[in-house]
Specification:
Number of helices: 8
CATH topology of the largest domain: Rossmann fold
Number of domains: 2
Shape: globular
CATH superfamily of the largest domain: NAD(P)-binding Rossmann-like Domain
Distance between the termini: 28 Å
Strand content: 5-15%
CATH architecture of the largest domain: 3-Layer(aba) Sandwich
CATH class of the largest domain: Alpha Beta
Low-confidence stretches: none
Mean pLDDT: 96
Helix content: 40-55%
Order of helices and strands: EHEHEHEHEHEHHHE
Largest sheet: 7 strands, parallel
Length: 259
């Protein structure tokens, strides 16, 4: 399918690896020029150069932490005039409700709620003026069904979801859509981190921890960054203009809900 976005320009946050890289890859394959952001310079530059060579698109890199105001300013400066915004940031650490204090919640909100909102506020007005734009927020399956050990993520990402629910309806008439992609477990560093916690808690091997988690997923496996990226690229396409304010699960059926 021709996504109809060749020649558009996108900002993809936290895109040096994992799900963010999957989104950057899929957009580059569709002919979209990129602004790629991450905190680690080496991995970011390597990923950007590979995509330049493979797809022949223009890529600007910004090494910055979008959870900070300084990092947001750097990214926003580089991303002026983008047509597509993919918000993404690493999730907060797992734990129990007794572990977290106010500062833990502030850090989670800064990274997973307030940073995406800041980028939306900075970049969407220009999209509205041009009459076309796409915003995709990478959040979590925990928005639909909370995961006890991810209470920080549950809280911050659900707050962003509420903001998107209202805001998306206000900008849709100008040709701009805002939607959320809710990943379950994918084969990324985040999954390795969570599985590592299980290894430590249960005294089992990493392979055993992965097999145990995969058994809870009806699809019987972890997702891949490539299939996640393809879903993101579709939401950014010319064909997705009637999808507004939705939170779409990509979790292999792991979230046991009817709607």
């Amino acid at each position: 399918m021709d996504l109809g976005i060749k020649g558009k320009r996108a900002l993809v946050c936290a895109s040096s690896k994992g799900l963010g890289l999957g989104c950057a890859e899929a957009l580059a394959a569709a002919g979209v020029d990129l602004v790629m952001n991450a905190r680690g310079a080496e991995a970011l530059q390597a990923s950007a150069e590979r995509l330049r060579v493979q797809y022949g698109v223009d890529i600007v890199t910004v090494v910055a932490d979008v959870a900070t105001q300084e990092g947001q300013a750097e990214v926003i400066k580089a991303a002026q005039g983008v047509d597509i915004l993919v918000n993404n940031a690493g999730g907060p650490p797992p734990g129990m409700w007794t572990d977290w204090d106010r500062e833990d919640f502030i850090q989670a909100l800064d990274a997973n709620m307030l940073a995406p909102i800041a980028l939306i506020k900075a970049l969407v007005p220009d999209m509205m003026e041009r009459g076309w734009g796409r915003v995709v927020n990478i959040t979590s399956q925990s928005v639909r069904a909370p995961i006890a050990v991810l209470g920080l993520s549950n809280s911050a990402r659900t707050g962003l979801t509420g903001y998107v629910a209202g805001t998306s309806r206000q900008v849709a008439g100008k040709g701009v859509t805002i939607n959320n992609l809710l990943p379950g477990i994918h084969a990324t560093d985040r999954a390795d981190s969570l599985d590592g916690g299980v290894v430590k808690a249960k005294g089992i091997t990493m392979d055993e921890a992965r097999a145990e988690r995969a058994a809870t997923i009806p699809a019987g496996r972890y997702g891949t960054r490539e299939e996640f990226g393809a879903a993101c690229a579709f939401l950014c396409s010319q064909h997705a203009g009637f999808i507004v304010g939705q939170s779409i699960l990509l979790d292999g059926g792991a979230t046991n809900i009817t709607m």
